[in-house]
Design a protein that fits this description.
The chain has 77 residues and is an all-beta fold. It is built from no helices and five strands. Strand 3 and strand 4 form a beta hairpin.
Length: 77
Amino acid sequence: MEEKEYFMPGDVVTIKQPLPNKPTMVVYKKKTLAIKDDSYQNKSEFFQGIICRWFTDTGELQESVFSTKDLIKIKNK
């Protein structure tokens, strides 16, 4: 059974897939979607992904939403 990995704001992560020039990113926050029913009494929140931020080689700040399945934590030693 695969062990679940949880991400907290401030964690340093990268993309699991072997891509050229994959960024080292910082977890900013989780993204959820809130849906209310017709009577506006009940509100359900659905997890959409993890918002990560990183800087490009030119120093430009980037931000994107990633699935937790696509991210791995970078172990600091």
